[in-house]
Amino acid sequence: MALYITDECINCDVCEPECPNAAISPGEEIYEINPDLCTECVGHYDSPQCQDVCPVDCIPKDPERVETREMLQAKYERLIAQGR
Length: 84
What we know:
The chain has a single domain, classed as Alpha-Beta Plaits, CATH 3.30.70. It has helices spanning about 50-55, 70-80, and strands spanning about 25, 30-35.
C-alpha cells in the first residue's frame, strides 16, 4: 500500500526530507504523499521513514491503494530505472 497523510498533520516538515523517493510535498493545507512515488521505503529502508519520524502518527497505509511488498519493490525498480 502507499501511505497517505491524514488531516491530523501539523505541518511540522519532518517527513518531507526523510522520503527517499521525493513522494512527499506540501499540499494546500497539509503535506501530501504522491502514491505513484511512494514505495513505503521498500528498496531503501526496512520501514517507512516518514512514519518513523512523524510526531503525531498521521501517516497510515492507504486502504485505497493496496500494494504487496513485491508490487512496492517493482515500483521502486521502475523509479530507479527512470532516474528518480
